[in-house]
């Protein structure tokens, strides 16, 4: 059970359904987290947690789909009630993940995916430990990240520079996450996310119960494990 969640004495006893996975994807703004998530999760019955935010909607965004857009006061009221699994401030706006729907989905055996800022992802890891499977989505280079941010045409040059400065620090901390997936080829990155998801589910079984597919997924996931990264690898990204 998520830390801070209290069981309801009137609720039915838990079933023998295996608890769902909690997968947290994060990375620098503009790295393509949303596009990758949609490709990876296409056709899957997972619970995607919609974060709250105080920022203004961008063109084409819908309240309750990309985010739940709220006022600063509504956000602060929710935070005071300990209603967020994590919350953070990013470039002047607040972002937070509500607790209740996540715990409900995990308890019924449904995998849960969070797409949140790096600071929030670290809060989730601190709060939940190994239950949270953290995946850092890496840009192929800082130059490419700048191109993507500029191409969105939703930010001022000053705001883009702030995001890039923050991205450099986040990339250098990528080894703190369990997995690192480079989003330079969408199809390959989505397949790597599927491998991580499959491997983490297989890890709950005894090795003698593994299928050939479990072994293949585990091997693929190990290739994107953060322990394979060196500081030199990360510096190459921020300097290219």
Fold and architecture overview:
The chain has nine helices and nine strands. It is an alpha/beta fold. It has a domain at 22-49 and 110-238: P-loop containing nucleotide triphosphate hydrolases (Rossmann fold). The strands form two sheets. The protein has a five-stranded parallel β-sheet with strand order 2-7-1-8-9. The chain is globular, with a radius of gyration of 18 Å. It starts with 21 loop residues before the first strand and ends with a helix. The relative contact order is 0.17.
Low-pLDDT regions: 3-13
Largest sheet: 5 strands, parallel
Q: From N to C, what is the helix and strand string?
A: EHEEEHEEHEHEHHEHHH
CATH architecture of the domain at 22-49 and 110-238, by name, is 3-Layer(aba) Sandwich
Number of E-state strands: 9
Mean pLDDT level: 89
Rg for CA atoms? 18 Å
Number of helices: 9
As a percent range, the share of helical residues equals 40-55%
Describe the structure in brief.
The protein is built from 9 helices and 9 strands. It has helices at about 35-40, 70-80, 100-105, 120-130, 140-150, 155-170, 185-200, 210-225, 230-240; strands at about 20-25, 45-50, 50-55, 70, 85-90, 95-100, 110-115, 130-140, 180. The protein has a 5-stranded parallel beta sheet. The chain has a 4-stranded mixed beta sheet with strand order 4-3-6-5.
């Amino acid at each position: 059970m998520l830390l801070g969640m209290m069981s309801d004495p009137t609720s039915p006893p838990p079933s023998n359904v295996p608890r769902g996975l909690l997968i947290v994807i994060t990375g620098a703004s503009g790295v393509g987290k949303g596009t990758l998530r949609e490709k990876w999760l296409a056709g899957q019955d997972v619970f995607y947690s919609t974060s709250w935010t105080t920022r203004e909607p961008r063109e084409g965004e819908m309240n309750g789909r990309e985010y739940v857009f709220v006022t600063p006061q509504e956000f602060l009221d929710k935070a005071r009630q300990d209603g967020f699994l994590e919350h953070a401030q990013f470039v002047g706006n607040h972002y937070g993940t509500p607790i209740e729907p996540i715990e409900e989905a995990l308890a019924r055996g449904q995998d849960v995916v969070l797409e949140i800022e790096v600071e929030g992802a670290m809060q989730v890891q601190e709060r939940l430990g190994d239950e949270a499977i953290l995946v850092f989505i890496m840009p192929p280079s800082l130059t490419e990240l700048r191109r993507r941010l500029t191409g969105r045409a939703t930010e001022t040059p000053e705001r883009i520079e702030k995001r890039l400065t923050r991205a450099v620090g986040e990339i250098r901390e990528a080894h703190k996450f369990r997995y690192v997936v480079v989003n330079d080829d969408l199809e390959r990155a989505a397949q790597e996310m599927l491998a991580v998801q499959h491997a983490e589910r297989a890890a709950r079984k005894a090795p003698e119960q593994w299928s050939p597919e479990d072994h293949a997924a585990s091997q693929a996931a190990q290739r994107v494990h953060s322990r394979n990264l060196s500081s030199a690898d990360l510096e190459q990204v921020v300097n290219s």
